[in-house]
Amino acid sequence: xxxxxxxxxxxxxxxxxxxxxxxxxxxxxxxxxxxxxxxxxxxxxxxxxxxxxxxxxxxxxxxxxxxxxxxxxxxxxxxxxxxxxxxxxxxxxxxxxxxxxxxxxxxxxxxxxxxxxxxxxxxxxxxxxxxxxxxxxxxxxxxxxxxxxxxxxxxxxxxxxxxxxxxxxxxxxxxxxxxxxxxxxxxxxxxxxxxxxxxxxxxxxxxxxxxxxxxxxxxxxxxxxxxxxxxxxxxxxxxxxxxxxxxxxxxxxxxxxxxxxxxxxxxxxxxxxxxxxxxxxxxxxxxxxxxxxxxxxxxxxxxxxxxxxxxxxxxxxxxxxxxxxxxxxxxxxxxxxxxxxxxxxxxxxxxxxxxxxxxxxxxxxxxxxxxxxxxxxxxxxxxxxxxxxxxxxxxxxxxxx
Length: 401
Ligand SMILES: [Zn+2]
Fold this sequence. Notes:
The protein has helices spanning 14-25, 29-41, 49-65, 129-148, 173-182, 229-241, 281-292, 318-332, 349-354, 382-395; strands at 69-73, 81-86, 97-102, 118-120, 123-125, 157-162, 185-188, 198-202, 204-213, 217-218, 251-259, 265-266, 269-278, 302-311, 340-343, 359-360, 367-368, 376-378. By secondary structure, the chain is an alpha+beta fold. It has two domains: 14-202 and 313-395, 3-Layer(aba) Sandwich (Aminopeptidase), CATH 3.40.630.10; 204-311, Alpha-Beta Plaits. It has a six-stranded mixed β-sheet, with helices on both faces. The chain has a four-stranded antiparallel β-sheet with strand order 4-5-18-17, covered by helices on one side. Strands 11-13-9-14 form a four-stranded antiparallel β-sheet, covered by helices on one side. β4 and β5 (123-125) form a beta hairpin. α1 (14-25) crosses α10, α2 (29-41) packs across α4 (129-148) and α4 (129-148) packs across α10 (382-395). The chain is elongated and about 90 Å long. The site of zinc ion has 5 residues, from α4.
């Protein structure tokens, strides 16, 4: 439970702080909503540098106006990344809280024509509003509300707003890992689970490709001279699929296959693309070794496996559980009851967790439809969710560690 002691610098109890934050945030909800719709109207697909950089301009200005020192990290291979720091004057040397956000979306330019940014029936819609432009506004609103209430931060807050999460974070991964190594804990502002639960575990992802080489031959004239790569691939697919251990969280999806050159030619080539999800690194090591031991059944064919771990699993460590319990207790002060859950999907939280930083995910806004045409947020969740972040920033997500 949350200790009843008042905050050192303000004399506010956690309960009073919760009320004060809501009193700051509720009356300004429509202004925050307008700011959010403006971010959504600024489309930002992961591979469109000009669109991304122009949204980064807007975000830099917003974060700076909210009291941050903003560093722009130039990225020749995509949108620039942003690193915004809010200092904690009474604890300048404390390890910071790392807040992970991304400002790219899966939606191409022009999506607004069919999915406009608008308000209807208590919901706000638009491409990327839930995943995760609302989260950028939540963080800004939380930090602004603390400033307006003259409540200091328990620790410095370092917020990363990256531009390539939706394509696997190729250019931001090393930055995220470096920041997480320095951080006290990591809060990931991806959306909560459907029942509003926070995420304390995420599966890791590995991607492989299996190429099979056989021998081509005319299927009518001399079929015996051929060695079918497609037939061998079919055997390999069954062998690969048998390596899954759903009881341990290890699942395998062979989502793409291709091969052959014509219907009357014994196929000389075929390949499959394999998507693997694992809950633990130990399971990844087991499966990776098994895949590399695959043997051909037809000795005239040859196989070649390429691929690797893309995102390591975010494992449910004791520190992450402590972080969850603290957050759940703080949420209760705001009348929010938040459960705990796991997901098979990966996020940048996987990278932070894998370098040993206690990581909690799912701290974004309530809503639904990530990557889907019904994407939306619940407008009445904006103020309490921002207030929850404010409580975490002011009261320390993991005191005593
Ligand atoms: Zn996201």
